[in-house]
Design a protein that fits this description.
The protein is built from six helices and five strands, in the order H-H-E-E-E-H-H-E-H-E-H. By secondary structure, the chain is α/β, with parallel strands linked by helices. Helix 1 packs antiparallel against helix 6. A five-stranded mixed β-sheet has the order 1-2-3-4-5. Strand 4, helix 5 and strand 5 form a beta-alpha-beta unit. The longest helix is centred in the middle third of the chain and has 19 residues. 32% of the residues lie in helices and 15% in strands. The chain is globular.
Length: 195
């Protein structure tokens, strides 16, 4: 996939357009196998960059879907993915941060883990950058209609790591514009779409 630095507007997005097909069951199973062996997020980033149809599970159904692998916001900030779909309301953007599948969102005391705290800090940095550079993001990066308030997703840890006593606290981590999820939830969403 091309980086966003090569993109001036949506008519140049075809290199980042993902076919509107569902992930196959074998592809989801391959993702699970990589996930089960992954010591950190790097193999998952690589796999999802090559198979972005899995990330489509994070968006509402739409007529078009684009995935941008590690685009740059200026010289400092690099989201793992930016995904976009288009429907009757226009372009709908989602920023994605992948964390390690072996990290947890909450520590044993029920507080946000250092990995989650760092990921949330990165999202705040992206939002600040977008607020300060929104015209640049639209015209130079070609992210038409993106805003600093677009939804963000942090994928961290596995479902089996969640302490059942802390589920209520875990659910409180997500808000209107920020979703915290495990890799297993992403797998479940992709499985539901799979053919």
């Amino acid at each position: 996939m091309r980086k966003t630095s090569d993109i001036s507007d949506e008519k140049n997005w075809p290199a980042n357009q993902v076919p509107l097909s569902e992930p196959s069951i074998p592809l989801v199973e391959e993702f699970i196998n990589i996930l089960n062996d992954a010591p950190d997020e790097r193999p998952l980033q690589f796999f999802l960059a090559a198979n972005p149809v899995i990330l489509r599970a994070l968006l509402a159904p739409s007529r078009c879907f684009w995935c941008f692998d590690r685009p740059k916001f200026g010289n400092q900030y690099i989201p793992d993915f930016i995904i976009c779909c288009q429907d009757s309301t226009g372009f709908n953007w989602t920023l994605i941060e992948l964390e390690s599948p072996v990290k947890t969102a909450l520590n044993a005391r029920g507080r946000m883990s250092s990995g989650l705290t760092e990921a949330i800090g990165q999202i705040h940095d992206w939002r600040i950058w977008l607020r300060r550079n929104i015209a640049y993001a639209h015209t130079e990066l070609g992210f038409n209609e993106i805003s600093a308030e677009c939804p963000c997703v942090i994928v961290i840890g596995r479902r089996a790591q969640l302490n059942p006593k802390l589920i209520s606290k875990y659910r409180e981590l997500s808000s209107r514009d920020l979703t915290i999820m495990t890799y297993d939830r992403l797998v479940d969403s992709a499985r539901r779409m799979a053919k």
